[in-house]
Amino acid sequence: MEVRQLQIFRTLAEELNFTRTAEKVHTVQSNVTAQIKALEEELGVPLFDRLGRKVTLTDAGRRFQPFAEQALTAMEQGERAIRNGAEPSGPLRISAPESQLTYRLPQVLRTFRKRFPNVEVAFRPHMDDTLAIELENGKLDLVINMCDAPNNPAHKSIRLHTERISLFGDPTHPLTKRRTVKPVDLAGQTLLLTEAGCGYRAKLDRVLALQNVRPGNITEFSSVEAMKQCVCVGMGLALLPAIVVARELRQHRFKALHWAGPSLDIATHILWHKDKWVSPAMAAFLELVQTHLEEDEQPERHLAIAGSFR
Asked: Which residues are within 8 A (CB) of 190 and not within 5 positions of it... i.e. 6 or more apart?
């Protein structure tokens, strides 16, 4: 099995088109066909179905894809390690929720960029249902995820901090005036929530299901900033990390509910695949983000708590 065959396989699996694959790997289409045929003969199974002009991965091709990606990624990382020594450099691909990326990470990234200018940091959209796959196939190096406890044995993780999660609304909402708000008080209320799959949204869903509480309406958002704007115009109650609404709480634009139900707070972890080589760039980011967020956790928690009860 040759490296060139794996490179062509990876590109064809992404493009599903022989002509575009030939252009991307800088060769002729007949060579792409020959290399894929040789790889299939060596493995003893077809990797692609060719139905007229349509190309699709077979089941064997889909199973083979993450291993080919891992092999190529490891080889590329090894080449960079030899070429650049221990100095962090090259691409670093990270996924993080919007709340973490917007409110927790800017200072970390600023410091990281200043210290390690040769690292090319790229952030990918945070899609919970694809994170494990993208860590496995090497498309992501690190994932910042909000969950109480990572449970995938294929992942290594470091716990960074605990996010205080708040239900809040505009100051005129009736529930913001109550001394305590229990899960049953959310019956019939309009809730503005992140999409299903979000860790803290899932905690609230479980609390309401266990107590058989039915909200009046649930509106889902992919953007926390859009949720905040909808709270401003009185559309309903929202559930977000306290750090996201700290400024609005200080300015009395929002008011946190005095939640008396089970805690909705959630831990934040940084994850990577257990079999992945931890490059100098990964190691540097892990060290920096862990140190920075651990130092920041206590002051931020005090700020959120103070803002909630004004």
From this structure: 215, 216, 217, 218, 219, 235, 236, 237
pLDDT (0 to 100) of residue 72: 85
51: which residues sit within 8 A by CB, 6+ positions away? none
Q: Which two tokens stand for residue 291?
A: 């140190």
> Sign (positive/negative) of CA torsion 24, 10, 87, 92?
positive
The whole-angstrom separation of Cα 11 and Cα 69 is 10
* CB atoms closer than 10 angstroms to residue 222: 12
pLDDT in tens, 163-213: 999 999 999 999 999 999 999 999 999 999 998 888 999 999 999 999 999
For 79, residues 6+ apart whose C-beta sits below 8 A from its C-beta are: none
Quote the tokens at residue 156.
Answer: 């290594």
What tokens does 129 get?
Answer: 């249902």
**Tokens at residue 3, please?**
């490296």
In this prediction, residue 306 carries a pLDDT of: 33
Quick: pLDDT tens for 151-163: 899 999 999 999 9
Length of the chain: 310
